[in-house]
Amino acid sequence: MSTTTDTPQVLRPDRKKSRAGLNILGLAIALVMVFPVYWLVISALRPSREIRSYDQTLWPSSITFDNFVRAVDQPNFGTAVQSSLIVSLTAVVGGMIIATLAALAIGRFRFFGRKPLVLILILVQMLPPTAMLIPIYAQLNAMGGIDEYWSLIVVYLVSTLPFATIMIRGFVVNIPVELEESAMVDGCTRFGAFRRVILPLLAPGLAAASIFALVNAWNEYLFAYILINDNSKYTLNVWLMTFTSERGTDYGALMAASTMIALPVVIFFMFVQKKMAAGLTSGAVKG
Amino acid sequence: MTAADTKAAGPPVPVPRDPKADGSPLSDEGGNGPLKQKRKRKKGELLPYLLILPAIVAIAAVYLYPLAKTVIMSFQDMGRRELWTGDPAPWVGFDQFTNILGDSEFWWVTFRTVVFMAVCVSLTMGIGLLISLLMRRLSNWVRLVLTFCLIAAWAMPLMVAASIFRFMADSDYGLINTLIAKVVGEDWLGHNWYLDPIQGFAIITLLVVWGAIPFVVITLYAALTQVPQELEEAASLDGATSFGIFRYVTWPVIKPVFSMVSTLSVIWDFNVFGQIWLLRGSKPEPEYETLGLYSYSKAFESTSFSQGTAIALITVILLSAVAVYYLRQLMKTGEVE
Predict the structure, then answer these.
(1) Statement to judge: residues A183 and A239 lie in one domain
(2) Which of A12, A213, B103, B327 lies deepest, with the highest CB count within 10 Å?
């Protein structure tokens, strides 16, 4: 978050003291918020006997990578990584192409039915997932799409469309039309103007939108759970459930696996969080 | 892109400059600049439709068609047999709805969903507002640390966050029990949080609120930076109490954003599914069912798909009031333009 706005400069003398108190409070809140993340990482790194203990300690006695080894050795780890990558990357690439075209239409042209379209884009995201789940399952079942990557890809691709379109549109409208026009005056075709002028300027927006879409596809589990029943095609999120069996949960390995799944997301998130917050309130709704 | 290609191949350089002829580019966001584009139906106007066509087809296929199917299925009786044989499901009129509405369990589930949503939203918005107000008065480095921690929490995938909380609230190896036992006494070791749905929902609420606060704080803080500092100082010099300053200076500025975020939270928390589902090991007990889970279990556990869609349809109707309110707010802020 930006640090540009500073706190009031007109400090009364007693403010200094209260500032220290507030800082401590702020740090305490930061600690509470980050604690589950800390617990995740630290549990992934501590020895198994400390995890299976009635006396949980806040610090590990020693650091070990055994949990990670067990997580990677869990059946289907490799195929789950592969499935997650195939499904989310394909969905994001396809989604971005369609979303960019739609965003250009909405952002650059004034045409009949534009406003209702934007409203539909916003509204469909508010539909409860279960309302979609049952008919989509029934339909894909009839079409033979159960246990197939393409069915997941289609669902993920389309579910990224509404917010990606609205988000990219926000970038499109900020590119002056004059740039495009002058490129066309200088001899570019309309497509040439798009490719040489608009696309480079749109790149940051596309990057942000695709990271957002990637994170969403990477994190999705409900449709993956319902549409994929074949163990060897599980995505990572569904694979995570295999750590819980009748005999209980292997928390150490579960935490290690979770850390591996969360790490790329956290890194990506750091890049786009600011645009994400803006995108969410400006109608690019995604829960 | 083919459309643009073939079209652009036609006219030699320089390309028509008349904005009316060629799909009339918008001049700025609101379109309230020089409105030179008097709509003239020429073939150039086809371009936006061609550009948006793939998106429309995709959304129609994955959102609108299933929605229509939800409505249709709700008036049929589709069970396991119809699903696998592909036989047309028999029409039953309003039977599904009369069954559901006559079932006291449905009303309990609805009540539970609404109460749970209300608790989650008030906690999220209340705590979120307090933290964002606090953030303005922190030193820069503390604010950076806090922001970093918020984003780290926000970035946790739902699956992962649920796993962490399941571990922390585990009856045998959970941190929460260990900590409580240290303070209260040994009998808390092995305490099962999910035997009593109230306690179980406390853990679920904790997970939901923890996951929602970062977005709320970051958004509200962004809104708070728009509050003119001079106004607050002036009010303070005029002797306003800090509550008075908040109520009459700060609040009016952030109110639109606050109500927008609250509306979103209402929708999200009404649809909470994953957190409960995952904390209860993907088989929630009936006492833990909210409307989404109730619909899911009717459809996939009892394989009465029509019951499931009918419940989902009722949920959609309940939520549509909130959605309309949200849209009106969006229209007011001009986001839809």
Answers:
(1) yes
(2) A213
Q: At what angle do helices B104-136 and B140-155 cross, to 10 degrees?
A: 150
Out of A64, A83, A107, a domain closes at A64
**pLDDT tens track of chain B, all 337 residues?**
333 333 333 333 333 334 444 444 444 444 444 444 444 445 557 888 888 999 999 998 888 888 998 899 899 888 888 877 777 888 888 888 998 999 899 999 999 999 999 999 999 999 999 999 999 889 889 998 998 899 889 888 888 999 999 999 988 888 888 888 888 877 778 888 898 999 999 999 999 999 999 989 988 998 888 888 888 889 889 888 888 988 998 998 888 889 888 988 998 899 888 889 888 877 888 899 999 999 989 888 888 889 999 999 999 998 988 888 888 887 877 666 5
For residue B18, the chain A residues in CB contact (below 8 A) are none
Domain count, chain A: 2
DSSP H/E element including A244 = strand A244-245
Looking at the structure, do residues A122 and A247 belong to the same domain, yes or no?
Answer: yes
DSSP assignment of B183-197:
HT-GGGTT--TTSSH
In a shared domain, residues A198 and A56: no
CATH number of the CATH domain containing A199: 1.10.3720.10
Query: A-chain residues within 8 Å CB-CB of B7?
Result: 190
Residue A193 belongs to domain spanning: 75-281
What number does CATH give the domain B103-303? 1.10.3720.10
Alpha-helical runs (H) found in chain A: 13-45, 48-51, 66-73, 77-108, 114-124, 129-142, 149-172, 177-185, 190-193, 199-219, 222-227, 236-240, 251-281
Confidence (pTM): 0.82
Do the domain assignments include residue A95?
yes
Contact B215 A277 (CB under 8 A): yes
* Gap between the Cα atoms of B13 and A186, Å rounded: 8
Q: How far is CA A151 from CA A46, A140, A143, B182, in A?
A: 39, 7, 10, 50
Q: Residue B126: enclosing H or E segment and its boundaries?
A: helix B104-136
Instruction: Convert A69-106 to b/e letters by CB count within 10 Å (16 or more is b).
Output: ebbeebebbebbbebbeebbebbbebbbebbbbbbbbb
CB atoms B59 and A158 under 8 Å: yes
Q: Do A111 and B175 touch (CB under 8 A)?
A: no
| Whether residue A137 is found in the same domain as residue A231 | yes
Which residue does chain B place closest to A259, by CA atoms?
A: B160
Q: How far is A48 from chain B (nearest CA, A)?
A: 11
